Amino acid sequence: MSSSSTPRGRHGAARRSLLGLLGPLALAAACAPAPPGPPAAAPRPAASAPPAPPSPAGPPRPAPAPERPGYEGHGAASVSPEILARYAAPPLPDDVSRRIQAMLDVRAPSGGVLGPDGKALYFTWTITGTRQVFRLDGPQRFPLQLTGGEDPTVVEAVTPDGARLVLSRDRKGEENPGLYLQDAKGGPLVAIQHAPGVQTQLQFVSDDGRHVYYRANDVKKDAYVIYRYDIASRQREVVFDREGIWRAVDAAGDGRLLLAKDVGSNMSELFEWAPGAKAAPGADAPTPLFGQGEREDYEAKYGAAPGEVLVLTPRLGEHRRLYSWKAGKLTPISPEIPFDVSAFSIDRARKRILYTVNERGYTRLRALDARSHREIKLPALPAADHVTPVSTTWDGRFTTLLLETSTSPATAHVLDWTTGKLSQWHAPSMPEMAPGAFSATTLESYPARDGAQIPMFVRRPARCERPCPVIVHFHGGPEAQARAGFSARAQLFVDAGFVFVEPNVRGSDGYGKTWLHADDGAKRLDVITDIEDAAKFVKASFGHEGRPPRVGIFGGSYGGYSALIGMTMFAGAYDAGAAVVGMSNLVTFLQNTAPYRRILRISEYGDPEKDRDALLKLSPITYLDRVKAPLLIVQGASDPRVPAGESVQIQQALEARKIPSELILFADEGHGAQKRDNQVLQYGHLVRFFRTHLGGGGGT
Questions:
Q1: How many beta carbons lie within 10 A of that of residue 379, not counting itself?
Q2: Buried (b) or exposed (e) across 184-214, using 16+ Cβ within 10 A?
Q3: Positive or negative torsion for Cα 425, 431, 435, 438
Q4: CA 54, CA 62: separation in Å to the nearest integer?
Q5: What span, in angstroms and rounded, lies between the C-alpha atoms of 578 and 561?
Q6: Which residues of the chain have pLDDT under 50?
Q7: Which of 89, 545, 569, 649 is the most exposed place for a label (fewest CB within 10 A)?
Q8: 3-state secondary structure (DSSP) of residue 551
Q9: Alpha-carbon distance 504 to 531, whole Å?
Q10: Alpha helices by DSSP H, 87-220
Q11: In this structure, is the dihedral angle defined by the CA atoms of residues 639, 644, 645 and 646, taken in order, positive or negative?
Q12: Mind giving me the DSSP string for 630-691?
């Protein structure tokens, strides 16, 4: 949705909640082609999927488990050409396409990374229709394009001397990133590594600028090796190689590495690896610091004091708080408040700690002196829903800030800590848009059946056919959060005459760890009713002259799963539904998702063997006989997270039951549409579908 509709950062610069569904995909992950192999057979119809349970009157029962999955594998090779051709997106009417094209022109560049002297800003922009890297040689200067072609490319870092950029490049949404170097003035890319079927992800650039540290799962698909690449010699060496999902999160001046091992969703253990140590089997292990065996949430960086580690964790309270860890003791350095600290950073000069607070879906910036931990007063900043620090120069003098409101795209500003001056570097593009064209977002709530108040953000159209039809959009994750802020994609639906509602049901991030973990594993059965309760509240409260509105459900990734649950388990609650890259069967999803994802997802959903009955109870495909309203399903063939077979199997099962449904398959996309032409098709068909089945009275 907006750039703010994201969870707390992890596994790179940021882990995006909708993963490309509702925006131009700011994911820093880039992707390689699928490994070669024989053409795969078409996914089998979901006749082998669990049959539907008895009537809705009784409680859901686990359906008999299939002897084998309804499909096998993930990625483009798992879908036959015949299936791709059958479900290719049909063309749109010209007037619909024009409107979508115009709205996609409303956008802004990313916050970007400053050169070390603060005189150049390198940023990502979708002006070509695909994410590419540009350079600004001063505030409001004309941008120079540095990368091009059809492969989305993201700038990750600038070397300390300002001479080179570190870039990540994507191919077809497969999420197998390649890592590259480029001269900061432009020119050809030099591959550090871009291997088929392998994720190559930047960890950091060394302080002396000689080395690029990265991780890759090129030895085992479910484990990551830490490598060090020598820029001058173009050679790499193994730094750390052990079983597990490892990250190198920071480096000390003497070469020590701070390592994180992810053991589940939002669960990490922290270690330190000394210079010269070897991680070969049988050698000394890295030194455990904290988190071992706890299955708790930790993010960490080295602090300014010797032996200090800065830690963001909810370990000692309900909300995430920032601590200083020394000699085994956590000492809080951020105030105790009823909100999560959502992220933090410390500059390489170890001068300042910047952290953001998530205040009910709004982002507030705060700063601390890195040595004394005293609060630093920030200069006056423009009013914004979100103030987010993006990057700080190596010497700590300049910080790029991204400022965003609900009525205007984000703008990048540079703060000079020496002078206190804030300068705007780039402006958003809003061609042919009148002032006040975008609806403001309001924070509201609805009651769940057990009395819990569920937060939701609401955007209302200036005009509609009353009662205004409503679209309830569920975010991805599930450990994500719908937030205030700008969204041209949401505005498409508002302009079409829909009220656009974005709930943060239990399991969402940003409201404390009890709320976040309320849906873990089988506990999801106790709170998944939040999806149905949203429809009940909207129908009871958003009507006109005693007439309830027609209500649709929509989402991507976990939000796509939520949409399928709303249309199946809670059939009748919603009048139409659209699911983008959503899971239809949690058992087959866990069996076929990428190996590195499976480890993390099992902690969130449950084990496909041990928790099979609960997973089947929670699977939309179990409740197909309940479906009463039309469904639109959208999927990328190359998706490594939610395999295309999840969408194909439920579509074919719906067809077999003669239930009105549509499937759109993008052959050249992964976990959401990245390419502009595909985004036009995706959003055009979404608007067309909901206008057909819910009505509406806007201009789209």
A1: 11
A2: beeeebeebbbbebbbbbbbbbbeebebbbb
A3: negative
A4: 10
A5: 10
A6: 1-69, 282, 699-700
A7: 545
A8: strand
A9: 10
A10: 94-104
A11: positive
A12: -EEEEEETT-SSS-HHHHHHHHHHHHHTT--EEEEEETT-BSB--SHHHHHHHHHHHHHHHH
- Quote the radius of gyration of the chain (alpha carbons, Å): 24
The DSSP call for residue 388 is E
β-pairing, 442-447 vs 453-459, is: antiparallel
- Residue 335's CB is within 10 A of a number of other CB atoms, namely 11
Give the per-residue pLDDT at 142: 94
Helix, coil or strand: residue 368? strand
Nearest to 272 by CA among 332, 333, 325, 200: 325
Please answer whether residues 676 and 84 qualify as being in contact, where contact means their C-beta atoms are separated by less than 8 angstroms: no
Q: What are the counts of helices (DSSP H) followed by strands (DSSP E) for the chain?
A: 12, 36
Q: Spell out the domains of the chain, with CATH numbers in brackets.
A: 81-103+438-694 (3.40.50.1820), 107-424 (2.130.10.120)
Which pLDDT score, from 0 to 100, does residue 358 have? 97
Structure tokens at 22: 């509702």
Given this model, what pLDDT does residue 698 score? Answer: 56
pLDDT, position 596:
83
- Dihedral in degrees, nearest 10, Cα atoms 83, 84, 85, 89: 120
Q: Which of 45, 50, 24 is nearest to 623 (CA)?
A: 50
Cα separation, 28 vs 521, in Å, equals 29
Write the CB contacts of 6 (distance below 8 Å, at least 6 apart in sequence).
14, 15, 16, 17, 480, 481, 483
- DSSP alpha helices (H): ranges in 207-363? none
End-to-end CA distance of the chain: 19
- Any idea of the CA torsion for 278, 241, 13, 255, to the nearest 10 degrees? 10
Please name the amino acid found at residue 480.
Answer: A
d(CA 460, CA 468): 9
At residue 519, the 3 state secondary structure works out as: helix
Among left, alpha and beta (phi > 0; psi -120 to 50; other), residue 632 is beta
- Give the C-alpha separation, 41 to 179, whole Å: 32
Which pLDDT does position 53 carry in this prediction?
Answer: 36
Q: What is the pLDDT of residue 436?
A: 84
- How many of the other CB atoms lie within 10 Å of CB of 625? 15
Instruction: Considering only the C-alpha atoms of the chain, give the largest distance between any 2 of them, rounded to a whole number of Å.
Output: 75
pLDDT at 277: 58
CA distance linking residue 240 with residue 259, whole number of Å? 10
Given a contact cutoff of 8 angstroms between Cβ atoms, the answer to whether 342 and 360 are in contact is: no
pTM over 0.70: yes
Joined tokens for residue 358: 């998530």
pLDDT at residue 283, rounded to an integer? 55
Using alpha carbons, select from 170, 147, 155 the residue that is nearest to residue 33.
170
628 token code pair: 């009463």
What does the alpha-carbon distance between residue 580 and residue 562 come to, in Å, rounded to a whole number? 10
